Amino acid sequence: MTQTAPNLFGYKKFWAQRFGSAHELPMSMDEMEQLGWDSCDIILVTGDAYVDHPSFGMAVIGRTLEAQGFRVGIISQPDWTSAEDFRTLGRPNLFFGVTGGNMDSMVNRYTSDKKIRSNDAYTPNGEGGKRPDRAVNVYSHRCREAYKNIPIIIGGIEASLRRIAHYDYWSDKVRKSVLLDSKADILVYGNAERQIVEIAHRLANGETTTDLKGIRGTVHFVKQIPGDWTEKDSSSIDKPGIINPPVNPYQEEPACDKKSTESNTEKVIHFNRHIPNKHRSQTVIRLPDYESVKQDPILYAHASRVMHGETNPGNARPLIQRHGSRQIWINPPPIPLTTKEMDGVFDRPYSRLPHTQYGEANIPAFEMIQHSVNIMRGCFGGCTFCSITEHEGRIIQSRSEDSVIKEIEAIRDTSPKFTGHISDLGGPTANMYRLACKDKKIEESCRRLSCVYPGICHNLDTNHSSLIKLYRRARALPGIKKIFIASGLRYDLAVESPEYVKELVTHHVGGYLKIAPEHTENGPLSKMMKPGMGTYDRFKQMFDKFSKEAGKEQYLIPYFIAAHPGTKDTDMLNLALWLKSNGFRADQVQAYLPSPMSISTAMYHSGKDTLQKVNRKADDISIPKSIKQRRIHKAFLRYHDPKNWPLLREALKKMGRADLIGNGKNHLIPSFQPKGTASIKTDKTRKFKTKYTMSIKSNKIKHNQKKKNRK
Asked: Using alpha carbons only, what angle is made at residue 107 by residues 590 and 353, rounded to the nearest 5 degrees?
């Protein structure tokens, strides 16, 4: 049965529409007065600087709510140490909407090695430290402190990826759903337009947050399962294997029922495509409770598998999870926006500039995207380490060609710094524009995690003709000198359309094209759900051929991930040898960071391959967790950096590959160490041992203190 949703712009507008659209959403009482407002209906709190551009989530939500007739104010990067900044715009009539920003606040603030970053691209002048850790929690608490009885709705990627009990890399423990930790009323996950518009109108009509049940793409509290619903235990869908019974704290030896544990060893198919159930639409799946997944990594992995199996809007069922005395109800994902609705979201009157209060301050994220155009949403790649699919979904939502062209013309005609170059025409994935399943019924019943792994689904339409047509029309516009494609390219799809590769290479590459094979070895690739290097080689052949035909000298820049679950030291060595044989010297390298709720994170936490049946007897996979091993894996990616050579020499000797140390062209690293190239200290030579690597400054302070004490 085809899922439908109300037209996003079909609601009767709120009475405040009489005030019209603001040039930019207000951030102060003075601006509100200039607009003739005595109050805000909705106040959005964000960890980012407010940039009125459709690449910034708060601008999109704010302008979408404004189109419904609501008066929307913005509190950007408030001082979270008190509630004072949260009273800047007064008391909202309907609700506070809270987000950490375009990035997860923890990812924004910490590196994959848990070191604090010195800058923040979403802050004026790139200044670091302008948002708190776990910003959604902190901002929500301050909103509650400012105005006790105002509803709080949390959303954005930080809330979206923490909607259920989740493993938190930074604290190395399983945390509760952010809905509980933030003490908010409702959590909105995924792209939020549908949910937030319905919530706003219903609250405006006199309903309370306790009335707002069953809205797709939301998480809320329930006291009990409604009487007309059927509860289905998650173990009946995907048996987690042998589960140890809970330990009785009052006996010396834990109880063990051999028969009950052996009965759970039957094999299970990974996410059945079709689960017959005549009451399916009224069935909720019971996940293991928070206390269980917190204590048991296998149950955590099981819950992750079940949750990821219920992400297709066409067939997903609600989930329920108990946290102590409270229960959260996770509704199915929102229905994707139609092309007309997407156009409506992007055609709002954005100024496309940072708020005027920032003056001449440089906001790095804005500088990077100010002349880029987002043409679609979603990604059906399903890479296990990526948050895009988990946040935006697998179904591609595309804008119309006319809407995209209109935005390019607006950039050309209004942007003060425009020089004729569009920096990107893409989205989460550059070449998924208008790609979809050939059959809507098949799409709605499908339960695959990826449309392109382990191979491209035969039901997927890979025709790039719509994208080619868009490229040609866009670059033919007067005043447009060059259009670059900077978004991530799915090259396994691109090779299915040589015409597209030719179009891309001939007209839209500025000398270099970044792509992400992520690894060369099948072990880690199979855990990432990424194609093998054979596909990369096919794409490179096309790239080189069409570059030569166009008379251009152009290069591919491949990106790789170090220390992903399933990666062994030998895998990184083989990758380093591949890099050297192909003449690549990476300037920047990426170490795997376990983001909340991802499939890779379930692997990282459980030590099992969660793409397969998970139980205690299943083989453990290699999980590079120690600081030293992660450092070694990163060093292999930068084998050419003299600072990494001492660490790599030690590693190669332990691996029995000392034959790769020498001064010949077939050696990976030389046997000598140039003067002035200080190495990263190993644990043996390290003077001060801490959980994480100390800064040089911290070491000096402690050393001087010791000298002082001796005196």
From this structure: 105
